[in-house]
Write a structure and sequence with these properties.
This protein is an alpha+beta fold and about 300 residues long. The protein has two domains: about 170 residues, Ribosomal Protein S5, domain 2; about 100 residues, Alpha-Beta Plaits (2-Layer Sandwich). The chain is built from 13 helices and eleven strands. The strands form two sheets. Strands 1, 2, 3, 4, 5, 6 and 8 form a seven-stranded mixed β-sheet that branches. The protein has a four-stranded antiparallel β-sheet with strand order 9-10-7-11, with helices on one face. Strand 9 and strand 10 form a beta hairpin. The two termini are about 35 Å apart. The N terminus is likely disordered.
């Protein structure tokens, strides 16, 4: 391969994430939900290879580690990675540029792990490098925010971030340390839109107390005025694991609660559903690495999508 061909291709890793906390505050007038969430990237990756082509248009070829999941993965403009490429080309004045995307999918689909959003962000970052557009990270995040609320998280190189608004307003957060993350997906695909709409329709009408309204993560006015805001409270597993969507998804799929109980009984310091589900994760302290490995092996005997990973 000559030098010109090499510069027209790039391969990137797109990490998954888990939500260590997800609090839904209210439904907004634009249809989205106002939320507070702490997201942590983890060492489970999709792999994308982007190649510039002479023929205009964006084309994608997908490979999935599970053949059963491949049928549910869009191979056209419905794929968020394709949407990201098309939007980036339009926004940067490269409408006639052709792009070929090879997506090797390892992150479970519609699982609360942000795989699609991470793929989209990788496309934005990759095309920025290939086309040398000098599109800033803030501009790329803004483009990504038009596609999905989680995309900006993956555009930035934050390993963990506190997010507000509809999830696109980010503050860098300390990465979780000293734990392994055991993920188990029961093979159920959950629509994020369904989860949020169901939450809104079943949300309790009793007014929240002031204590309940208070966020477990907060930035002081002093911090908010700084160039790089810092969280004023450190996340603690015992107290702060919370997901408002867990009850909604869990009521429909009882296996989620069963997996939580199993992980806790197996030695996890904490366990929770990530995002809108259906992936459940257990946090195992490093001193309990043997328990994590044993639990991982046992869960693999029943479920196809089980992963033992680390926080980035």
């Amino acid at each position: 391969m000559d030098v010109e061909q090499q510069t027209a291709q790039i391969t990137l890793l797109a990490p998954a994430k888990i939500n260590l906390s997800l609090k839904i505050l209210k439904k907004r007038e634009d249809g989205y939900h106002e939320l507070e969430t702490l997201m942590q990237k983890i060492s489970l990756y999709d792999e994308l290879t982007l190649c510039l082509t002479e023929k205009p248009g964006v084309h994608i070829h997908c490979i999935h580690c599970l053949e059963t999941a491949l049928a549910h993965l869009p191979h056209d403009e419905k794929n968020i990675a394709v949407q990201a490429a098309q939007l980036f080309l339009n926004e940067t004045g490269n409408r006639e540029q052709g792009v070929s995307i090879l997506l090797k999918k390892n992150i479970p689909i519609a699982a609360g792990l942000g795989g699609g959003s991470s793929d989209a962000a990788a496309v934005l970052n990759g095309l920025n490098q290939l086309l040398q557009t000098d599109c800033s990270v803030q501009q790329r995040a803004a483009i990504g925010g038009q596609i999905g609320s989680d995309v900006p998280l993956f555009v930035y190189d934050f390993q963990a971030a506190y997010a507000t608004g509809r999830g696109e307003q980010l503050t860098k957060a300390p990465s979780l340390k000293g734990y392994q993350v055991l993920l188990v997906n029961p093979g159920i695909q959950v629509s994020t839109q369904w989860a949020y709409e169901t939450f809104s329709s079943t949300e309790r009408k009793i007014p929240l107390t002031e204590e309940q309204k208070a966020s477990i993560f907060s930035c002081s006015k002093k911090c908010r005025n700084k160039a790089t805001p810092m969280l004023t409270q450190q996340f603690t597993i015992a107290e702060d694991l919370q997901n408002d969507l867990e009850q909604v998804t869990g009521e429909r799929y009882p296996v989620i609660q069963q997996l939580k109980e199993y992980l806790l009984a197996s030695g996890a310091a904490g366990a929770m559903m990530s995002g809108s589900g259906s992936t459940v994760f257990g946090l195992f302290h490093q001193k309990d690495a043997a328990k994590a490995k044993q639990c991982f092996s046992l869960l693999q005997q029943k479920y196809n999508q089980v992963y033992l990973v680390t926080p980035l």
